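Dear support,

I submitted the protein below through the web form. The confirmation email said the job was done, but the results page showed an empty box. After a refresh the structure appeared. I'm attaching both so you can tell me whether what I see now is the final result or a partial one.
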Amino acid sequence: MAAHSQFGRKSTLDDIWVRHFADSLQVSQAVPEARRWLDLGSGAGFPGLVTAITFADEPGARVHLIEADQRKCAFLQPSHGKQRRRDYSLRQDRDNLTCAP
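What the results page shows now:
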């Protein structure tokens, strides 16, 4: 049985920087003038937390993470609580993740 971690199989651990962190940085680089971000279906916090860290010192920057799955939201909660940051918010919400046609 293959070894697993929070980010995938042991064989992918060497690629963790590129697959998760560097990919997440591309979001903020695509629209560098943006200061408000919304990460729907945040999962493990990629790219939302990386974006929040990137813009942590920017006045007015804010990242909103919305995750429907209670377990994933619980995973994100300690990082949100320990940081006590005002540059991002975390909310569990399933009902408001629909889009009108």
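Response: this is the final, complete result; the empty box was a page-load delay. The helical segments are 16-30, 48-54, 70-83.
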